[in-house]
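Lecture 7 notes: from sequence to structure.
We start with the chain below.
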Amino acid sequence: MTQSIDTIRFEDLGLSQPVLQALDLKGYDTPTPIQQQAIPPVLEGRDLLGIAQTGTGKTAAFMLPSIDRLRESDKQIPFKSCRMLVLAPTRELAVQIAASAKDYGALAGLKVQSIVGGTSVNKDRNKLHRGTDILIATPGRLLDLIDQKAFNLNGVEVLVLDEADQMLDLGFIHALRQINKLVPADRQTLFFSATMPKAIKELVSGYCTNPVQVSVTPESTTAERIEQYLFMVQQDEKQALLEMILSARHPVPGDLERILIFTRTKHGADRVVKKLSKAGIAANAIHGNKSQPQRQRALDEFRRGKTLILVATDVAARGIDIPGVSHVINYELPNVPEQYVHRIGRTARAGKDGVAIAFCAEDERAYLKDIRKVTGAGLDRLDLPENFRAVVEGVGPTKPEPRGATRVSRKKVRPKPAGRSQGGQRGQAREGGEGQNRARKPGGKHTARKGRPSGGQRRGSNPARSGAGGGRGRG
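Predicted structure tokens for the same chain:
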């Protein structure tokens, strides 16, 4: 049954008065389509499989009716356990769900806690010692506490898996199977995913019993309010193009207000931020190598508008509700086409329009083809700036020419070390390990390694010092 969202209000879905009052305090009175379809069967105690993209209101779809059911059962908080367990793939999403749970349950008298990696495990042990009604957790930290006998899952009445497909992408399949064995079989399971690949179907069959399936959008489609564009650009020219766009030297569709940039790797994100900083453009990075306080601080500054540019890996592609993102730039295309949908879904939220721009290099054409095939998205191609080639050749991130070489001939002219007249080959041997075997005697034979003067010993000592320094760095 399909009804207009204008004809249904939260009070029509059977929610209790405390929950309705909490929604009223937040200014919410009209449920989204996923909430309309999910709340009634969850209130009835049914298992549920929800297919919906990020930004559709999934958190309220499972949290509102679950709060009501926990209130009605009125069971005591179990010692070192919880009554409702919500699993999230990333720390940021877990923190966000916990904040929503506290808002929605503000008048229900339920205790809400969250545990994520990158924080003090001792603090988590202490705050969960007496148990909690609702726990939002990342799988790794949860299993750490269980292994330490600091927590158990014996009291779970409701189990929620949010963004299940991303949990599989991040390699949590074994953790999920282990958790599934530890929770009681007599429970309600709510399963949410943005896509429905074969692996998710198999996981659902092991978690849910005769689930009600609700879906509000076709699988792997992109939001209609997002304008999508494409630049074909060489890999080593992307930084120059990005800087021209962000510094308003090359106009792009839409007003640049708050920009989220995605890279495939952690080091790539840091590298982009470092180069932007050199160009006088302020930006923060968020990825798995950052500590939890660093990640949270970067997100908070981005939300508040203190920093208008955030460079992220896919850790920020799901479930993070960042209002006002005007542009999403895929600096590097994802190698999983569904991830493209989740990335660009960070814009055009809360009824607003958004712009998504993709940079595609020659070696990423296969990724672009997969994205178009899976999403059916038509990305309008944009022309590079008229002066782009001059910018790249002048100040762009191209490889620097060797000293002594000319741009015309590009001959590999080896510079001579300062203070030497005939020591070019010795200088080459010191600089790279392979150069040692190329030094020849006047007669044409290779120089033997035995009996080398003290210069060879000096060269041998450098790696030792280098190794020691590397050891200290790792420690």
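Points to note: Residues 10-215 form a domain with the Rossmann fold fold (CATH 3.40.50.300). The CA atoms of residues 177 and 203 lie 9 Å apart.
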